[in-house]
Each structure stands twice: as structure tokens, then as C-alpha cells.
Amino acid sequence: MIDRSIEVERMEHVISVFGSFDQNLRLIETELNVKILDRDNLIHITGEEENVMLAEKAINGLLALAARGENIDAQNVRYILGLVRSGKESEIQKLAGDVVCITAKGKPIKPKTLGQKEYCDAIAKNTVTLGIGPAGTGKTYLAVAAAVAAFRAEKVNRIILTRPAVEAGERLGFLPGDLQSKVDPYLRPLYDALFDMLGADTYQKYLERGNIEVAPLAYMRGRTLDDSFIILDEAQNTSREQMKMFLTRIGFGSKVVITGDITQIDLPEDKVSGLKVAMRVLEGIDDIAICTLTGADVVRHRLVQKIIEAYEDYEKQNPVEEPRRDGRSGGRNAGQKRGSTGTASTGAERSAAPRGRVPAGRRKGHA
Length: 367
Hints:
By secondary structure, this protein is α/β, with parallel strands linked by helices. The protein contains twelve helices and eleven strands.
């Protein structure tokens, strides 16, 4: 057991780091199995040597973020602890970066993880950026924030948000209303992000003027998009042909961000994800960046990160066979049409059947 002390210059920074009712302090103590006391402008840390050293690095990093005006919450604390455990405490300062955008309510939007910061930097520096990562990593939200910031700075004249209209594993069937009402459910996440950045009234004003366009990917064919900030969301559900079509819409003065999660593809089994193909085809091309976010960059509820990790572990132990180009998985019963008898008939067998004869099961008296 050892004891180390950290000298504190401003108590308001300690209050920010410790959190409401010392909840952040208790989190550090639980995670690292140490005891932390605040006394006479000193923070005392007691415990095993290795754990105390980690706690000291984490608290110093959190104090540095508090000194730069960052809000410290449980998510920040867990992420800082993860950096310290992996020996990346020197990169904590990078988290106190520039503000991407200010929301309609005055809230600053900043990257919360190193992966998110690299993603935002890539958007700023490149014409085309691919953001690939699991749910909750802020891919779409940060892209919309960057688009609104570019629009406010008059770097672009339009914001165009699009995504493929693909259901997540179910068939919604006929939807009532006009064309816009039919596609709105697919585009709701994009609307939500824009409402946060601009406010409902400002959003509606720009929408009526044509400065903002939210549309399904199918509407993009044949267009040339100049001076626009274009975001393709849920790109894992594009086909190879759709992705090529979208990428060739880019005009002069435009910037493109493509986001997707290749672990949540809702395409039929015989369809290849256009995002997966684009990741291979576009790699190494100048002015195109491919950013991969991980479970460590998840900024939703802490259970989301654990759920993603659990699924990753399960899929490693139970790999799913990739579909072949002919649409078959390669299994023993691949390509067979499933019926009540579990058998399959080939096209040759069907064509060889005598025409004009009524099948036995449908003859009169046997229906």
C-alpha cells in the first residue's frame, strides 16, 4: 500500500472532476480499487502501487480537462480510465479540442473521444470522408454538426442529407400519405440531428428555401451537387451500384461524408454492401479519408458499449458464412426453395414438365 498526493490550484476544478455528490470520485475508486480523499488543497490517493499510479494519471488528466472548461461526467471518466490503462494518458489533452458546432440551445458540440476527434479532423481536411463504426459512436450527429458549421460559415450553399430506404429486418408494407410522408420514417434520425443544431423554425425556413434537402438515396441519380455538404447515412444498406452512383454525384465545392455500420446490414443475403466495396476501392486515394470508430468511441448509455462488445465476441466464436455472388451461402441446402416438403426443383425440371396438364393435387375432386 502506498499513498500519493496531487496538489490542486483551484478547488472549482476539483468539484468539477469529483462530480455531483462525488459520483465521479466513487467511480474512480471502484474501478481502480483505491481510496481518494480531498484535504487542504491536496488529493490523497491510497492503494496498491500500480492502481495508485493509474488513479493519479487519470485525475491529473481530468483536472486538465476541467481547467479548459470541459464538462466532466461518468462517460468522460470511464473513457479517461480506459486511456490510462492502455498507456495513452499523453493523448488526453487532445480531447479538449475545438467546438464543431453550437446547437440552437447554445450547447457546444465537441468530439468526446480520440476516435471522434480523428473523424472530425478528417471531415475538415478531406473532400470525402467515410465514417465506419458501431451504433452510438456519433457518426451521423458529428457529420450533421460539421455540415451546419460549414453552412453557417458560408463554405457551402446547401446541406443534403440522404439514406437508403431499407427496413431493418421487417416489411412495413404500404404507408399512407404523400411521397414525403412515405419516406419520412426512414429519414427521422437526420431530422432529429438537424432540429438539435438549427431549431425547428430555422430548419423549416431553410427547407422551404431549398438550402436543406432531406431525401432518399434513389432521388440522387442524374444530379450534380455543387457547393453542397452531402451526408449519406446508413451507407451499409446501399448496393454496390447505388454507392458508385452516389459517389459520382460530387460537384465543385462540395464535401461528402458517408457513415455506416457494417455489422448491421439489412440488405438481402444475396446483396453485397456498397459500403464494404467502397472501403476497399477507395483506400489510398488522395483527398478521401476512411475513419474506423470502435466500441471505445460509443457515447450512449454504457450498456451499449457492453452490448456491442458482447456481440463482437459472439460473432468471432460463431462466424457467419459470407454469401456467394450467386446469392447462395454455400451450405448443403444452398439455393433450394424451401417448401413444405423441403425439396427443390431445378429450372430444367420445371421446363420439362408437360404443358397443359393439371397437377394431380389440383384435379377435380382432389382440391
